[in-house]
Amino acid sequence: TNTLNITNNNYYSVEVENITAQVQFSKTVIGKARLNNITIIGPLDMKQIDYTVPTVIAEEMSYMFDFCTLISIKVHNIVLMMQVTVTTTYFGHSEQISQERYQYVDCGRNTTYQLGQSEYLNVLQPQQ
């Protein structure tokens, strides 16, 4: 589960139309998610949006499964890339904001996960 903290720094409401997220290992997409018609953020307000991207390590990545279940090592760190795009609308105008981040994940079977990775987005900054 990830959390987006979206801030509206304007004096008018904006609609968070959709959020698309994708998780990659190396160049292989292992998960995608899309949320539609999410919420409206009032003027000078902030909202938190939780979302989950289901991921699958499939047949073509059997080497990854072997690594993640290897008993001889205790920590099974892999690096995943997560891309998130938020589409907002206001006054009939659409705007997209994207973020990309890399995250270390322990894919081992005896892993305790810390829930909730937070990302902060300031949407629709008034132009200077």
TrEMBL record:
Keyword Kinase in record: no
Q: Which Pfam families match?
A: TMEM106
Q: Which domain of life is it from?
A: Eukaryota
Q: Where is the Transmembrane protein 106 C-terminal domain?
A: 1-112
Lipid bilayer topology: Single-pass type II membrane protein
The subcellular localization recorded is:
Cell membrane; Late endosome membrane; Lysosome membrane
| Keyword terms, alphabetized | Cell membrane, Disulfide bond, Endosome, Glycoprotein, Lysosome, Membrane, Signal-anchor, Transmembrane, Transport
Question: Is the Cell membrane keyword given for this protein?
Answer: yes
| SUPFAM superfamilies hit by this protein | LEA14-like
A Gene Ontology cellular component where this protein is annotated is:
plasma membrane
The record's PANTHER family line, in alphabetical order, gives:
TRANSMEMBRANE PROTEIN 106B
Q: What is this protein called?
A: Transmembrane protein 106B
Q: Which organism is it from?
A: Equus caballus
